[in-house]
């Protein structure tokens, strides 16, 4: 029926743009509705995801925390030890160095880049206009057999090595369900600089009236991805604030 509708609209329209029958703003509105609604999302205070990744045939458990005030953390349980990555306590960004097994702060540039996304919880598209973000419908694109709307999201720019760099991501929304199945962005720093980061999302499930992907994949375009299986999602979890605080190790 959807295909027939678009075909009929194309016949009636004298404008190529109208054949999309959607605008970027409409797509984002339908996306937020499909996820459970902007009102419910705005009331979230935090999300805890229990997950696992497979490395060398071994399932490694993770706990991922994202809080409304910007604090976040990924806690990894590996061989009886707890390792932390991507921890932000409201001021410092830090994580465990896998070589020294000690906590280390990220440099000022990485911390500043991270802070450009503060306020994105629980979703960068929620009230995106008030954040100064811009959305643009690039067009339609087929992703692994699924027809999608490709949306360009432009956020606050980065400052890297003293130069202003654009902060752009491309979201691919399923054209029928209006849920994102792929996010692409250019890697700006590190060994993969210049390559395209890809995050895939699938197996959406309901949690207390909101919908979240329970299957994720993260990697670099053309080089495969690391699958992450979400086993449980808790909304508004109780978290000890001390878990986020950087502790100098000697």
Can you tell me about this structure?
The radius of gyration is 20 Å and the shape is globular. The chain contains four helices and 15 strands. The longest helix has 11 residues, at 2-12. It has a single domain, classed as outer membrane lipoprotein receptor (LolB), chain A. It is mainly beta and 250 residues long. Helices cover 14% and strands 47% of the residues. Residues 1-19 have low confidence and may be disordered. A 13-stranded antiparallel β-sheet has the order 6-5-4-3-2-1-15-14-13-12-11-8-7, with helices on one face. It has a two-stranded antiparallel ribbon with strand order 9-10. This is Outer membrane lipoprotein-sorting protein. Keywords: Signal. Residues 1-20 form the signal peptide.
Brief overview:
This is Outer membrane lipoprotein-sorting protein. Helix content is 14%, strand content 47%.
